[in-house]
Amino acid sequence: MNLTALYKGHFIDTPTPGQFRVRKDAIAIVEDGKLLSLEREVPAQFSSLPVKDSGAGVVIPSFIDLHVHAPQHMQMGVGLTLGLLDWLENHTFPRESRFADEAYARSLYPLFAAELLRQGSLRSVVYGTVHLESTLILAQALEKAGLIAFVGKVNMDRNAPDDLKETSEASFKGSEEFCRRLAGQGRVRPIVTPRFAPSCTKKLMKELGRLSQRLNLPVQSHLAETLTEAQWVSQLFPESRSYTDVYNDCGLLGPASLMAHAIFLNDEEINLIMERESTLVHCPSANINLGSGIMPLGRYLDRGVNLGLGSDVGAGHTLAMYRSVVQAVQASTLLRILRPEENHRAVTLSEAFYLATMGNGKFFTRQGWVPCGAFEPGMSFDALAIDMGLPEAVDLSPLNQLERFLYAGDDRHIKTRILAGRQL
Ligand SMILES: [Zn+2]
């Protein structure tokens, strides 16, 4: 295969977090799904090919959601003022238990995949439920929508309602079978998914750690989202030095590990995360909705921690990652305003945009995918064409158009979605 396509537009990306890179009126030459180069003019050897022109709008890397719960899609916005543990008990667990019914999964998961696509999140890392077959249905729905994703069957062998609680043995076997059935080089691949330390025994987590190492699979979980939960973990695992150390003890902390939230970490824990090269996933929408706290994102960025960004639907109330970008800026700004004595800094819009594209893309690259998240030669051509449809007289620069889209745009302004060179 040697398919070449040409796209013309104002290309904006963030190969580094510090600033947006704008290339006006450029021509992207895309071959076999990868960007060959960005040129000023159409090179002579391609002059016979048609050029797809995105017009006055801008072209940006498509979004990546590094933390999202598919079964919670339909409960977005429901009961969010309860706080994490009550919200789980009253809304999330009862809903998740309904996915025992495969017909229910078959009716809802395609809607989740369609919404990811509509919002321009063409890659994602997704939680299913404890149910093996339903979570495979979720993987099929994402595959069918043409999306790239990691999907995890959730593990819970304690502190869960009876209809979601598995035996340690069944939980492990279920994950092993899930990973085996989803293994391969397809667009949707498995990820080991202990829900969070309070709902898993150490025995189960150790087995899952060994499974991820044996099959060379990534891991996702939650870490230090609220103080109440962190205190609970210290009671459940008195022998561990910290919450982070619980995962480390179980072999679940490595370069392929995603830990969502990580709001309440001490210095020793941050050092351990950095030593293990694990990635912390910031989910500002969920953190504010549930009143959990605010991750010191600027501080983590300055220390060089691997970071990503997630919608965390349904605690987050939208699958639109452009909203998460803005929420990351807003949350860090609030932290600076509210706790001046701690010298927090607000992150910039380019830093937050970087996380949702290039930063999150690094996780896929580390798992062996073609690099993605920016418009660099050799990278997967993952792109969204954005057009705010403003009157010509408004005359916004390409960068101002992107800013306006991130803050005030929506899916109606996403005109084209391209993943690995393929228009979806
Ligand atoms: Zn979550």
TrEMBL record:
<dbReference type="Pfam" id="PF01979">
    <property type="entry name" value="Amidohydro_1"/>
</dbReference>
<dbReference type="GO" id="GO:0046098">
    <property type="term" value="P:guanine metabolic process"/>
</dbReference>
<dbReference type="InterPro" id="IPR032466">
    <property type="entry name" value="Metal_Hydrolase"/>
</dbReference>
<feature type="domain" description="Amidohydrolase-related">
    <location>
        <begin position="58"/>
        <end position="423"/>
    </location>
</feature>
<dbReference type="InterPro" id="IPR011059">
    <property type="entry name" value="Metal-dep_hydrolase_composite"/>
</dbReference>
<keyword id="KW-0479">Metal-binding</keyword>
<dbReference type="GO" id="GO:0008270">
    <property type="term" value="F:zinc ion binding"/>
</dbReference>
<dbReference type="InterPro" id="IPR051607">
    <property type="entry name" value="Metallo-dep_hydrolases"/>
</dbReference>
<dbReference type="GO" id="GO:0005829">
    <property type="term" value="C:cytosol"/>
</dbReference>
<protein>
    <submittedName>
        <fullName>Cytosine deaminase-like metal-dependent hydrolase</fullName>
    </submittedName>
</protein>
<dbReference type="GO" id="GO:0008892">
    <property type="term" value="F:guanine deaminase activity"/>
</dbReference>
<dbReference type="InterPro" id="IPR006680">
    <property type="entry name" value="Amidohydro-rel"/>
</dbReference>
<keyword id="KW-0862">Zinc</keyword>
<keyword id="KW-0378">Hydrolase</keyword>
